[in-house]
Amino acid sequence: MLYFGAILFFGIHLGIGAEKLSIFFKLLRLNKRIGTSPSRIKKTAVKLAELLDQYQEEQQKKHKLDESLKIVGGIDETYFESMILVLMDLSSGYIFVEEESEDKSYETWLEKAKKVADKYGIEFKYFVSDRAKQLIQLATQGFKCLSVPDLFHASHELVKQFGLSLKRKKADIEKKIAKEMIQLTLLIKLSQDTSAHKAIIEELENQQTGIEKSISAYRDILHRISITLHPFDIKDSSQVTSIMIQAKLYSILEEAESLKKEQDIKSKKDHLKKFKKQIEGMASLIDTWWLWVNEYFQSDDINEECKNWVQHYLLPFLYWKKQADRTKAPDLKEGYQYAADVALDRLEKHPSTPKFIEKEEMVSWAEWMVSNFQRTSSAVEGRNGWLSQMHHNGRGLTPNRLKAQTVLHNYYLKRDDGTTAAERLFRKKFPDPLEWVVERMGDLPLPRESKKGGNVNPLYC
To answer: Which CATH number is 69-149+376-428's, of 3.10.560.10, 3.40.50.980, 3.30.710.10, 3.30.420.10?
Structure first.
């Protein structure tokens, strides 16, 4: 029973169709003991989805906390046969809304988000999204909080401005050099004058060197944007402000504009202008996050010595450590790890560290606080990619199947630390949905009884 239920559970979770599961069960010779036809499996899958819905309802009764939830909202929409709206807590990855919708208007978003906020007692500190007007309006008017431009989308404007154009220029020059080299080889074999072709090749190689330098400069611009938008300076872990970040981003933008003129890059849309419009919004995240941090320091239990230690020594180390752990890009990871090592050295040498490091509640708060510095909605984009895979694997996403996938995401999928999204958000353990569902599945469907005589050959399936 547990074996069959577990396979069905994982099969549905991975989007495997009933027909393929039916064939798999027949290969295991289970069709002699339980019903494994596609229709039977579909009925069982429907029952599993219903049980997952019951599981979520039961767990939601345990969601009540002594205080309101303060979260960072990630919002986006994705499209299949119909449009699906997604609202997620970016820190924990918990999905509050993942529903089909006929429109994505401000009124629709506000209705869904307000319902979630009232149900869970949520205070949205800020939202991260693309620059869709209704999403900005949801944050600034609906919840009176900051709407932060997604750093990935903003940086992608530079990719659209430079990436393809520089790549094409490099490819064109390489083709010209290859063509001239063939002609040069032919002239050498014919013992003819090659000085003109050598001069052409030398000029092309100079152009190639210039393009390669421009590509390097373009990549450096993207790298510097990424290491700039942090609450601490990566060089010495000192606290930064929104004004400081704006100045750095505007300086980087000037370099990008100079590179555009140097390479005479033209496009129908001014992507650098779109990036410029988002600088102030991205930088404002810094002050918003520090205001959130300062809320903790209002407690009477936090004196100036403790505040200084947390703000300038504990938080920088935990922040850079988290960035180094989560980053995959080698160049960024190396920089973040170096910053974490330097911050750790400063933390260990500080005279107040032995006194305060034992305060588990404070350290736990600091770890939670650094997880709430969210500059992209990549978690939502990743979820949209997962839904796309499920949509294609299962030839569609019905409302019930979508709801079941949301439950599995919140209560079953785990990060490297072994925690689910629900555990990270509500800070408590929940029963394993696989075990909970299998225990309540009831008796398995029996195989059909053939009217003809049974097969005497046991090796025949």
So the answer is: 3.30.420.10
